[in-house]
Amino acid sequence: MKGDRPLSSPFNRHLQLRWRFLPQVGPFWSGMAIALLLSIFLHFQFPISTLAQVNPQTPSPPSLPSPQVHPLPSTLAQWQDIGNQGDYFSEISPTELGYLVWSRFPVKIYVEPPSEELVESNSESGTALHRSLAWFEAVTQSLQEWNAYLPLEQVDSPEAADISIWRSTPPLQGWREGNLRARSAETRYQIYRVNPASGPAYLTQRFNILLRPSQTEEYIRAAARHELGHALGIWGHSLSETDALYFSQVRNPPPISPRDVNTLKRIYQQPTQLGWPLD
Ligand SMILES: [Zn+2]
Protein backbone atom coordinates (compact mmCIF):
# COMPACT_ATOMS: atom_id res chain seq x y z
CA MET A 1 0.00 0.00 0.00
CA LYS A 2 1.01 3.61 -0.23
CA GLY A 3 3.71 4.10 2.34
CA ASP A 4 4.38 0.43 1.93
CA ARG A 5 4.64 0.69 -1.82
CA PRO A 6 5.85 -2.12 -4.04
CA LEU A 7 9.48 -2.64 -4.84
CA SER A 8 11.16 -2.59 -8.15
CA SER A 9 11.20 -6.37 -8.02
CA PRO A 10 8.29 -7.46 -5.86
CA PHE A 11 8.15 -10.79 -7.55
CA ASN A 12 11.59 -11.71 -6.31
CA ARG A 13 10.54 -10.84 -2.83
CA HIS A 14 7.65 -13.23 -3.09
CA LEU A 15 9.91 -15.95 -4.34
CA GLN A 16 12.25 -15.39 -1.44
CA LEU A 17 9.38 -15.76 0.97
CA ARG A 18 8.19 -18.80 -0.84
CA TRP A 19 11.56 -20.45 -0.52
CA ARG A 20 11.27 -20.26 3.21
CA PHE A 21 8.27 -22.56 3.00
CA LEU A 22 9.63 -25.04 0.56
CA PRO A 23 10.98 -27.69 2.96
CA GLN A 24 7.41 -28.67 3.78
CA VAL A 25 5.85 -28.96 0.39
CA GLY A 26 2.44 -30.49 0.72
CA PRO A 27 -0.93 -30.45 -1.01
CA PHE A 28 -1.14 -26.76 -0.26
CA TRP A 29 1.70 -26.08 -2.63
CA SER A 30 -0.06 -27.46 -5.60
CA GLY A 31 -2.46 -24.60 -4.98
CA MET A 32 0.39 -22.16 -4.77
CA ALA A 33 1.89 -23.41 -7.99
CA ILE A 34 -1.32 -22.61 -9.77
CA ALA A 35 -1.37 -19.29 -8.02
CA LEU A 36 2.05 -18.54 -9.35
CA LEU A 37 0.80 -19.29 -12.81
CA LEU A 38 -2.22 -17.09 -12.33
CA SER A 39 -0.20 -14.25 -10.99
CA ILE A 40 2.20 -14.39 -13.89
CA PHE A 41 -0.67 -13.93 -16.26
CA LEU A 42 -2.67 -11.40 -14.36
CA HIS A 43 -0.36 -9.77 -11.85
CA PHE A 44 -3.10 -10.15 -9.26
CA GLN A 45 -0.69 -9.90 -6.42
CA PHE A 46 0.26 -6.31 -6.99
CA PRO A 47 -1.54 -3.41 -5.43
CA ILE A 48 -3.79 -1.48 -7.78
CA SER A 49 -1.26 1.30 -8.03
CA THR A 50 1.03 -0.90 -10.10
CA LEU A 51 -1.61 -2.42 -12.33
CA ALA A 52 -0.83 0.08 -15.04
CA GLN A 53 2.23 -2.03 -15.74
CA VAL A 54 0.12 -5.04 -16.68
CA ASN A 55 0.25 -5.92 -20.32
CA PRO A 56 -3.33 -5.40 -21.54
CA GLN A 57 -2.99 -8.39 -23.84
CA THR A 58 -2.46 -10.87 -21.03
CA PRO A 59 -5.09 -13.61 -21.28
CA SER A 60 -7.89 -13.99 -18.76
CA PRO A 61 -8.30 -17.35 -17.05
CA PRO A 62 -11.46 -19.22 -18.03
CA SER A 63 -14.64 -19.46 -15.99
CA LEU A 64 -14.08 -17.09 -13.09
CA PRO A 65 -17.16 -16.84 -10.87
CA SER A 66 -19.24 -13.71 -11.21
CA PRO A 67 -18.74 -11.19 -8.38
CA GLN A 68 -21.13 -11.78 -5.48
CA VAL A 69 -21.49 -10.60 -1.89
CA HIS A 70 -20.58 -13.05 0.88
CA PRO A 71 -22.69 -13.24 4.05
CA LEU A 72 -21.52 -10.68 6.58
CA PRO A 73 -19.58 -12.25 9.48
CA SER A 74 -21.69 -11.98 12.64
CA THR A 75 -19.10 -9.80 14.36
CA LEU A 76 -19.48 -7.18 11.63
CA ALA A 77 -23.23 -7.69 11.29
CA GLN A 78 -23.60 -6.84 14.97
CA TRP A 79 -21.32 -3.83 14.79
CA GLN A 80 -23.07 -0.51 15.13
CA ASP A 81 -21.46 2.88 15.23
CA ILE A 82 -23.65 4.81 17.62
CA GLY A 83 -21.79 8.03 16.89
CA ASN A 84 -22.24 7.77 13.12
CA GLN A 85 -18.66 8.72 12.51
CA GLY A 86 -18.66 7.78 8.85
CA ASP A 87 -16.06 5.89 6.89
CA TYR A 88 -13.41 6.21 4.20
CA PHE A 89 -14.79 3.56 1.89
CA SER A 90 -14.24 5.87 -1.10
CA GLU A 91 -10.48 5.49 -0.54
CA ILE A 92 -10.58 1.70 -0.87
CA SER A 93 -9.49 0.06 -4.09
CA PRO A 94 -11.11 -3.11 -5.35
CA THR A 95 -8.77 -5.51 -7.13
CA GLU A 96 -9.42 -7.06 -10.51
CA LEU A 97 -11.30 -9.77 -8.64
CA GLY A 98 -13.30 -7.38 -6.52
CA TYR A 99 -12.80 -6.50 -2.86
CA LEU A 100 -10.31 -8.43 -0.76
CA VAL A 101 -12.83 -9.89 1.64
CA TRP A 102 -12.37 -13.15 3.50
CA SER A 103 -15.20 -15.63 3.34
CA ARG A 104 -13.90 -18.51 5.45
CA PHE A 105 -13.44 -17.92 9.15
CA PRO A 106 -11.52 -17.82 11.30
CA VAL A 107 -8.84 -16.21 9.16
CA LYS A 108 -5.59 -17.96 10.08
CA ILE A 109 -2.64 -15.80 11.01
CA TYR A 110 0.96 -16.79 11.60
CA VAL A 111 3.22 -14.49 13.60
CA GLU A 112 6.94 -15.30 13.38
CA PRO A 113 8.16 -16.40 16.83
CA PRO A 114 11.69 -15.78 18.12
CA SER A 115 14.12 -18.12 16.37
CA GLU A 116 15.10 -21.32 18.13
CA GLU A 117 18.76 -20.30 18.11
CA LEU A 118 17.82 -17.17 19.99
CA VAL A 119 15.76 -19.09 22.52
CA GLU A 120 18.52 -21.63 23.07
CA SER A 121 21.34 -19.12 23.15
CA ASN A 122 23.00 -17.89 26.33
CA SER A 123 22.40 -14.66 28.18
CA GLU A 124 24.63 -12.65 25.87
CA SER A 125 21.81 -12.48 23.40
CA GLY A 126 19.17 -12.06 26.07
CA THR A 127 18.43 -8.60 24.77
CA ALA A 128 17.85 -9.88 21.26
CA LEU A 129 15.55 -12.57 22.63
CA HIS A 130 13.73 -9.99 24.68
CA ARG A 131 13.25 -7.78 21.62
CA SER A 132 11.96 -10.69 19.58
CA LEU A 133 9.51 -11.65 22.29
CA ALA A 134 8.36 -8.05 22.63
CA TRP A 135 7.81 -7.87 18.86
CA PHE A 136 5.84 -11.12 18.93
CA GLU A 137 3.76 -9.92 21.84
CA ALA A 138 3.01 -6.54 20.23
CA VAL A 139 1.93 -8.14 16.96
CA THR A 140 -0.22 -10.69 18.78
CA GLN A 141 -1.94 -7.86 20.65
CA SER A 142 -2.86 -6.11 17.40
CA LEU A 143 -4.25 -9.40 16.14
CA GLN A 144 -6.46 -9.61 19.21
CA GLU A 145 -7.70 -6.07 18.59
CA TRP A 146 -8.97 -7.01 15.12
CA ASN A 147 -10.38 -10.26 16.44
CA ALA A 148 -13.21 -8.21 17.95
CA TYR A 149 -14.43 -7.46 14.42
CA LEU A 150 -13.48 -10.53 12.38
CA PRO A 151 -12.88 -14.07 13.69
CA LEU A 152 -9.11 -14.67 13.62
CA GLU A 153 -7.00 -17.58 14.75
CA GLN A 154 -3.27 -17.58 15.41
CA VAL A 155 -1.59 -20.65 13.91
CA ASP A 156 1.86 -22.16 14.44
CA SER A 157 3.01 -22.57 10.87
CA PRO A 158 3.06 -20.29 7.85
CA GLU A 159 1.90 -23.20 5.70
CA ALA A 160 -1.42 -23.17 7.56
CA ALA A 161 -1.80 -19.39 7.48
CA ASP A 162 -3.82 -17.02 5.32
CA ILE A 163 -1.75 -14.11 6.60
CA SER A 164 1.89 -14.43 7.68
CA ILE A 165 3.65 -11.69 9.61
CA TRP A 166 7.44 -11.73 9.50
CA ARG A 167 9.94 -9.99 11.75
CA SER A 168 11.81 -8.47 8.87
CA THR A 169 12.78 -5.03 7.67
CA PRO A 170 11.15 -4.21 4.32
CA PRO A 171 13.66 -3.47 1.56
CA LEU A 172 14.41 0.19 1.00
CA GLN A 173 12.26 1.81 -1.61
CA GLY A 174 12.84 4.60 -4.04
CA TRP A 175 16.30 3.68 -5.24
CA ARG A 176 15.25 4.42 -8.79
CA GLU A 177 14.29 7.92 -7.75
CA GLY A 178 17.52 8.32 -5.82
CA ASN A 179 15.45 8.97 -2.73
CA LEU A 180 15.81 6.05 -0.37
CA ARG A 181 13.27 5.73 2.40
CA ALA A 182 13.10 3.29 5.25
CA ARG A 183 9.70 1.77 5.87
CA SER A 184 8.28 0.16 8.95
CA ALA A 185 6.19 -2.41 7.11
CA GLU A 186 5.18 -3.88 3.82
CA THR A 187 2.09 -5.89 2.94
CA ARG A 188 1.63 -7.96 -0.21
CA TYR A 189 -0.87 -10.45 -1.40
CA GLN A 190 -1.18 -13.17 -3.98
CA ILE A 191 -4.23 -14.90 -5.30
CA TYR A 192 -4.18 -18.64 -5.53
CA ARG A 193 -6.52 -21.47 -6.24
CA VAL A 194 -7.62 -23.80 -3.47
CA ASN A 195 -8.69 -27.35 -4.33
CA PRO A 196 -10.39 -28.65 -1.18
CA ALA A 197 -10.64 -32.39 -0.48
CA SER A 198 -14.38 -32.00 -0.81
CA GLY A 199 -16.30 -29.22 -2.43
CA PRO A 200 -15.51 -27.00 -5.39
CA ALA A 201 -12.27 -25.14 -5.99
CA TYR A 202 -12.15 -21.42 -5.30
CA LEU A 203 -9.76 -18.47 -5.45
CA THR A 204 -8.43 -16.95 -2.29
CA GLN A 205 -5.93 -14.36 -1.20
CA ARG A 206 -2.80 -14.94 0.82
CA PHE A 207 -0.85 -12.18 2.52
CA ASN A 208 2.72 -11.69 3.64
CA ILE A 209 3.49 -8.80 5.96
CA LEU A 210 7.04 -7.69 6.73
CA LEU A 211 7.26 -5.72 9.95
CA ARG A 212 10.42 -3.95 10.97
CA PRO A 213 11.67 -5.17 14.36
CA SER A 214 13.69 -2.10 15.33
CA GLN A 215 10.85 0.09 16.57
CA THR A 216 9.29 0.73 19.93
CA GLU A 217 6.62 -1.72 20.99
CA GLU A 218 3.96 0.94 20.55
CA TYR A 219 5.00 1.52 16.94
CA ILE A 220 5.26 -2.20 16.23
CA ARG A 221 1.74 -2.64 17.55
CA ALA A 222 0.51 0.32 15.50
CA ALA A 223 2.21 -0.91 12.33
CA ALA A 224 0.83 -4.41 12.84
CA ARG A 225 -2.64 -2.99 13.45
CA HIS A 226 -2.37 -0.94 10.26
CA GLU A 227 -1.01 -3.74 8.06
CA LEU A 228 -3.48 -6.27 9.42
CA GLY A 229 -6.20 -3.82 8.45
CA HIS A 230 -4.93 -4.03 4.87
CA ALA A 231 -4.75 -7.82 4.98
CA LEU A 232 -8.27 -8.10 6.37
CA GLY A 233 -9.60 -6.15 3.40
CA ILE A 234 -8.96 -2.42 3.87
CA TRP A 235 -6.87 -2.05 0.72
CA GLY A 236 -6.53 1.71 0.91
CA HIS A 237 -5.85 4.45 3.43
CA SER A 238 -7.73 6.87 5.60
CA LEU A 239 -7.04 10.59 5.30
CA SER A 240 -7.73 11.08 9.00
CA GLU A 241 -4.92 10.59 11.49
CA THR A 242 -7.36 9.33 14.12
CA ASP A 243 -7.83 6.12 12.11
CA ALA A 244 -5.54 3.09 12.33
CA LEU A 245 -5.39 3.02 8.53
CA TYR A 246 -4.16 6.61 8.23
CA PHE A 247 -1.58 6.68 5.48
CA SER A 248 1.31 7.81 7.65
CA GLN A 249 2.84 6.97 11.00
CA VAL A 250 1.79 9.38 13.74
CA ARG A 251 3.30 10.27 17.07
CA ASN A 252 0.44 8.80 19.10
CA PRO A 253 -0.95 5.90 17.10
CA PRO A 254 -4.73 5.59 17.46
CA PRO A 255 -6.55 2.31 18.20
CA ILE A 256 -8.91 0.79 15.64
CA SER A 257 -11.48 3.55 15.20
CA PRO A 258 -15.23 3.32 14.51
CA ARG A 259 -14.43 4.71 11.05
CA ASP A 260 -11.99 1.82 10.49
CA VAL A 261 -14.71 -0.67 11.41
CA ASN A 262 -17.40 1.15 9.41
CA THR A 263 -15.09 0.97 6.40
CA LEU A 264 -14.35 -2.71 7.01
CA LYS A 265 -18.06 -3.46 7.25
CA ARG A 266 -18.83 -1.67 3.98
CA ILE A 267 -16.03 -3.58 2.26
CA TYR A 268 -17.54 -6.87 3.45
CA GLN A 269 -20.85 -5.83 1.88
CA GLN A 270 -19.23 -5.57 -1.57
CA PRO A 271 -19.11 -8.19 -4.32
CA THR A 272 -16.00 -10.22 -4.99
CA GLN A 273 -14.93 -13.17 -7.10
CA LEU A 274 -12.83 -14.49 -4.24
CA GLY A 275 -14.18 -17.45 -2.29
CA TRP A 276 -16.89 -18.45 -4.77
CA PRO A 277 -16.89 -21.83 -6.55
CA LEU A 278 -14.90 -22.03 -9.75
CA ASP A 279 -16.60 -23.68 -12.70
ZN1 LIG B 1 -0.75 1.23 4.64
Q: Could you tell me how far the N terminus lies from the C terminus, measured between alpha carbons in angstroms? A: 32 Å
Instruction: Tell me the name of the CATH homologous superfamily.
Output: Collagenase (Catalytic Domain)
Q: Biggest sheet: strands side by side, in what order?
A: 3-2-4-6-5
The SSE order reads: HHEHEHHEEEEHHE
Instruction: Write down how many β-strands occur, each being a DSSP E stretch of 2 or more residues.
Output: 7
CATH architecture: 3-Layer(aba) Sandwich
Bound ions, cofactors and other small molecules, one mention each = zinc ion
| CATH fold node name | Collagenase (Catalytic Domain)
Overall body shape: globular
Number of domains: 1
Question: Can you summarize the main beta sheet?
Answer: 5 strands, mixed
Low-pLDDT parts are 2-59
Q: Count of helical segments?
A: 7
For this structure, what is the CATH class?
Answer: Alpha Beta
Task: Estimate the helix proportion, in percent.
Answer: 25-40%
How would you describe this structure to a colleague?
With 279 residues, the protein is of the alpha/beta class. It is 30% helix and 14% strand. The strands form two sheets. Strands 3-2-4-6-5 form a five-stranded mixed β-sheet. The chain has a two-stranded antiparallel sheet with strand order 1-7. The two termini are 32 Å apart. The chain binds zinc ion (ZN). Zinc ion binds next to α6.
